[in-house]
């Protein structure tokens, strides 16, 4: 396992995941960009590396692509196909331990919700960017009021999770990009995830890192030894703990 040294995990009450290149091995917006992948990937990388504000590239990428409703539905299926190993098992284990599990993503809301449903995360625990279509299913814009379509927006959404009336502290956030790092000050622990794409400036700024392309590797980073022992004694979750032990040995 590739990780930055860290102290023992506290019993986190809320676990927040990014979606693209964290729960799934793809960047959904790039998968939509058939024929324009290089242009869109370049814009995405500049935003995720912190070189450009997200709002400077969000609408520009969608205008390049102009995805149809069918295209967006296809990305939901792609997210599910490319979910990282042990993603569903980890979510199930976290719920078993009584934790709140959420997704906060700058991706498009319909496909992110499709992945969430596959993983057993309720739609109410998903924050992403709405997208609109006309009656024929043609692209008609995105939710320009969404904080997740601009720099600093993820911090606002994570703050609501951390401090709102339904808050269940403390909170841990797992993500790969500069937008995730922006929200790190509100978290008890931020884990820079590089199992798909390792962004060096995010890794350099994070106290805890993980570069293993398997979400079982997160177990010792987000669960206490007591919680791991509890899972190991469970028929439904013991395999996840064994996988984590193998990956972190």
Structure description:
- With 249 residues, the protein is an alpha/beta fold.
- It has one domain: HAD superfamily/HAD-like (Rossmann fold, 3-Layer(aba) Sandwich), CATH 3.40.50.
- The strands form 2 sheets. Strands 3-2-1-6-7-8 form a 6-stranded parallel sheet, sandwiched between helices.
- Helix 9 links the parallel strand 7 and strand 8.
- The longest helix is centred in the first third of the chain and has 13 residues.
- The protein is globular and about 50 Å long.
- The mean pLDDT is 93.
What is the CA–CA distance across the termini?
7 Å
> What does the main sheet amount to?
6 strands, parallel
* Oligomeric state, counting identical vs distinct chains: single chain
What are the secondary-structure elements, in order, as H or E? EHHHHHEHEEEHEHEHEHHH
Which radius of gyration do the C-alpha atoms yield? 17 Å
Task: Report the average pLDDT across residues.
Answer: 93
CATH superfamily: HAD superfamily/HAD-like
Shape: globular
Give the CATH class.
Answer: Alpha Beta
Whole-number total of structural domains = 1
Class of secondary structure makeup: alpha/beta
Strand content: 5-15%
Strand order of the largest sheet: 3-2-1-6-7-8
Number of strands: 8
Number of helices: 12
